[in-house]
Amino acid sequence: MIFKTVFKIVVPCLFITTLFGFSEKPEWKNLLDKNLTQWEMYLSYRHKPGYNGKVPIDAGGKEIKPIGYNKNEAGVFTVIEEKGEPVLRVSGEIYGCVFTKAEYENYHLKAKVRWGEKKWDPRTDKLRDSGILYHSVGECGKDYWRAWMLSQEFQLMEGHMGDYWNIANAAIDVRAFIPEGIMNPVANEKQPFLPIATGTGIDGFCLRGENHESPKGQWTEVELVCFEGKSLHIVNGHVVMVLQNSRYVENGKSVPLTKGKIQLQSEAAETFYKDVMIKELTTLPAEYAAYFR
Question: Which residues of 15-26 are buried (b: 16+ CB within 10 A; e: fewer)?
Answer without folding.
Answer: eeeeeeeeeeee
